[in-house]
UniProtKB/TrEMBL annotation:
It comes from Pontibacillus chungwhensis BH030062. The lineage of its organism: Bacteria, Bacillati, Bacillota, Bacilli, Bacillales. This is ABC transporter substrate-binding protein. Belongs to the bacterial solute-binding protein SsuA/TauA family. GO terms for molecular function: ATPase-coupled transmembrane transporter activity. Keywords: Cell inner membrane, Cell membrane, Membrane, Signal, Transport.
Length: 329
């Protein structure tokens, strides 16, 4: 009887221990879904898709599919609901959702740079001071490019958007439509992610007003970050490592094979947006971007503080726990 009781106790302890432990590996889903935008800052996603890098790092037979997003808000919703397993998004949406309680982690960078402030041709804008009273466009309210632009204008020129009872009117739209918005005279200024800045410049719809290096956090802030859910990190770290490995392989391929990567970007952007960009546009855009998976959390915190200053965030943010660099080290 005592022996039976002892065995039952051991069995019960084993069950309780298993229930209380954090799983570090699990069965890889039959399908992995990766998200990214049709922007040059997201070329790592395009290259990974074209070269099947995730298929190389994931277990044999895993199906990998891709979903393309027009803005960071829809991407972050897809991460939070489990619609996608990971992918590339601007740091602004990732930080905003994290501070609002989203269980997500930034695991790596995708690129830095690539934001350009453009003025419409014949708008009469020849300097940043001329933006007062004009209409500017960004992909989304509070997105990365919006924060970079509004931070610069507020700090350097004392201007705010109409959202803050300021003297700049703000509208939103997809970056691929900015050239037409300029052509129609609907907007005067655009905070533009590449390659659309170089496209606008080449086609003569607008001119560079503030280049990447002079935009707020222009060369230091990650323009794209690789994100997944905290639940996936906690419950299946082996799968997460395989995803990050695929992303790093794509980034290293871009660094070592820029010409082929440019061709991939041209073809993927055409497939997704139905717009074919010239090689000269891509060459120009490439000069404003650095492709890297290395990430510095300090720059993200400074950027988040700017989001608070602009009242995109209700409380001053603490990004402790958002970035997990362990998968790239």
């Amino acid at each position: 009887m005592k022996k039976l009781l002892y065995l039952c106790t051991i069995a019960l302890l084993a069950v309780l221990t298993a229930c209380g432990s954090k799983s570090t590996s699990g069965e890889t889903p039959e399908e992995i879904i990766i998200g990214y935008f049709p922007n040059i800052n997201h070329v790592a996603g395009m290259v990974a898709e074209e070269k099947n890098f995730y298929e190389e790092t994931l277990p044999d037979g895993t199906e990998v599919s891709y979903k393309y997003f027009p803005d960071g808000s829809s991407f972050m919703t897809a991460i939070e609901t489990g619609e996608i397993h990971g992918g590339l998004v601007g740091p602004g949406p990732a930080m905003n959702h994290f501070t609002n309680g989203a269980k997500i982690n930034i695991l790596a960078a995708g690129s830095t740079g690539g934001t350009v402030i453009m003025a419409r041709k014949d708008s009469g804008i020849t300097s940043p001071e001329d933006i007062k009273g004009k209409t500017f466009i960004s992909p989304r309210v509070g997105c990365t490019h919006d924060v970079q632009f509004e931070t610069l204008m507020m700090r350097e020129f004392g201007m705010k958007s109409d959202r803050l009872n300021g003297d700049m009117k703000h509208v939103t739209g997809k970056p691929a439509t900015y050239a037409q918005q300029f052509a129609n005279g609907k907007v005067d200024v655009a905070t533009v992610p590449e390659p659309w800045a170089s496209y606008i410049e080449e086609e003569g719809y607008g001119e560079v007003l503030i280049d990447t290096k002079n935009v707020a956090y222009g060369e230091t802030l990650p323009a794209a970050v690789f994100v997944t859910s905290s639940d996936l990190v906690e419950n299946d770290s082996e799968l997460v490592q395989k995803l990050v490995d695929g992303h790093m392989k794509a980034t290293e391929f871009i660094q070592e094979n820029p010409d082929e990567s440019k061709t991939i970007a041209i073809n993927k952007i055409k497939d997704i947006t139905e717009q074919e960009l010239s090689r000269s546009v891509i060459d120009s855009a490439w000069e404003r971007i650095t492709f890297t998976y290395e990430i510095n959390p300090d720059y993200l915190q400074m950027f988040a503080n700017s989001s608070f200053d602009l009242e995109f965030l209700k409380e001053k943010p603490d990004l402790e726990g958002l970035v997990d660099k362990s998968f790239i080290e």
